[in-house]
Write a structure and sequence with these properties.
With about 425 residues, the protein is α/β, with parallel strands linked by helices. Helices cover about 45% and strands about 15% of the residues. The chain contains 17 helices and 14 strands. An eight-stranded mixed β-sheet has the order 3-4-2-1-5-6-7-8, sandwiched between helices. A six-stranded parallel β-sheet has the order 11-10-9-12-13-14, with helices on both faces. Strand 13, helix 14 and strand 14 form a beta-alpha-beta unit. Helix 7 packs across helix 8 and helix 13 packs across helix 16. The N terminus and C terminus are likely disordered.
């Protein structure tokens, strides 16, 4: 009898988990959603089984990433499987061609995930972006009794704010979840306001190496600014570009912008129009190793996020955590989950969104006050280590998978 109880306890403490997502690394060298990939790597050894359930991209089949099996479902001809990855489905689905892919995407995902749950004896489904992916959890939950963890990142809430139908669907999907998680206190407040549900804050940590080992400070002759992320509207790069001439009038500086997205061509044209070609470099996608070097070499990190036309903004901003981990002063907009990462005047400087003058002044303040820049960097590193520690985040995630009590959301303690 004791052997039976021990076996039951082991299965409960080490459940069979599947992470359900629209986007996941397509190869070992693909660095999309690196925070999700890192969380999988950090939790796999604490579980009986961990798999990733995701859509195919241009015919991509089952494969392994970091020793974790990634199952891919097909939903169109090989050339047409481009609804996800890179720019993301919400941006792409504005065009008619992509809209036609939504129905087969949802249907094939629903059927495939039910089949995989049976085949893999999955006990927990961790659903990222529960609209629309909460649909895929319904049959496993109703027919197989699978435990559902729904993870909101903010994009689904932006859609829900502008559509009663989407808001109803999201509320229903969340009502079917056994646990609701979010990436920041801002997202938690939005889930409560729009859908009426409490949630647990489960942030992520940095996914690039930091400069702790070397302890070396950069000493570029020309100060450099860095931005990393997808080049989509809510990143606000146009605000940064328009602020840059005011900075250059008082301080020579270089700006490196990494990433790809549907606004890249527009922003490259704006940079040229403003005469910034010699000061701004659009670097495109870079590897984690290159990104680590850019963090270490920059003088300050700038993140001018905005609320876009659909009301979407930064849910958390993992790149901010990466900048803090590298002891870099951060200048960012006071929007969304950014306030969980950047404490104004302590771990960085916050400015109003879409305010070019305020952004330029904050950048100049950091560039011209080395003591302030150093203190922000040191405080930021401490804050990142305390609040966004991977071991802490992974342990909380495993507790949620196990169905164990989590008494309160992850707190964001003050510096000092």
């Amino acid at each position: 009898m004791s052997t039976l109880f021990s076996s039951i306890a082991r299965r409960t403490s080490r459940p069979r988990v599947a992470v359900v997502t629209s986007t996941y690394a397509r190869s070992q060298d693909d660095h999309q959603v690196p925070w999700m990939r890192e969380m999988a790597r950090r939790t796999v050894d604490q579980l009986d089984s961990l798999k990733i359930y995701a859509p195919s991209f241009r015919g991509l089949g089952k494969h392994d990433i970091d020793g974790v099996e990634v199952r891919r479902f097909r939903y169109a001809l090989k050339a047409g499987e481009t609804l996800t990855h890179d720019s993301g489905a919400p941006s792409k689905s504005r065009s008619l061609g992509y809209k036609l892919l939504v129905l087969p995407y949802l249907l094939m995902g629903m059927l495939s995930i039910l089949f995989w749950c049976v085949r893999d004896r999955t006990k927990v489904l961790h659903i990222h972006w529960p609209f629309p992916h909460g649909l895929w959890a319904l049959l496993p939950k109703w027919l197989l009794g699978v435990r559902v963890v729904a993870m909101c990142h903010g994009a689904e809430l932006a859609l829900a704010r502008n559509s009663k139908v989407i808001r109803w669907a999201l509320k229903f999907f969340l009502s079917q979840a056994d646990e609701i998680c979010v990436n920041s206190s801002h997202t938690a407040a939005e889930v409560k306001r729009l859908c009426g549900f409490a949630s647990k804050v489960v942030p992520y940590g940095a996914t690039v190496s930091d400069s702790e080992a070397s302890g070396e400070e950069t000493s570029n002759e020309v100060p450099s600014l860095l931005f990393c992320g997808r080049l989509i509207q809510r990143k606000g790069i146009d605000v940064l570009l328009r602020a840059l001439p005011s900075v250059l009038a008082k301080q020579n500086v270089k700006l490196v912008i990494t990433g790809e997205g549907d606004r890249k061509a527009e922003w490259e044209a704006l940079s040229k129009k403003l005469g910034l070609e010699s000061s701004v470099r659009f670097a495109g996608f870079v590897s984690n190793e290159e990104l680590g070097e850019l963090y270490r070499d920059c003088t300050a990190y700038v993140h001018p996020a905005i609320y876009d036309d659909k009301g979407d903004t930064e849910g958390l901003g993992v790149v901010l955590i990466e900048a803090l981990a590298n002891r870099k002063p951060v200048i960012a907009s006071k929007v969304g989950g950014i306030v969980d990462v950047i404490i104004d005047g302590e771990t960085g400087l916050l400015v109003p969104e879409k305010n070019e003058a305020a952004l330029a002044n904050a950048i100049l303040r950091v560039l011209n006050d080395s003591d302030l820049a150093h203190q922000l960097g040191e405080n930021g590193r401490l804050h990142a280590a305390r609040v966004f520690d991977w071991d802490r985040c992974a342990a909380l995630t495993v507790r949620i998978y196990q169905g164990r009590e989590v008494t309160s959301p992850v707190s964001v303690p003050a510096i000092g």
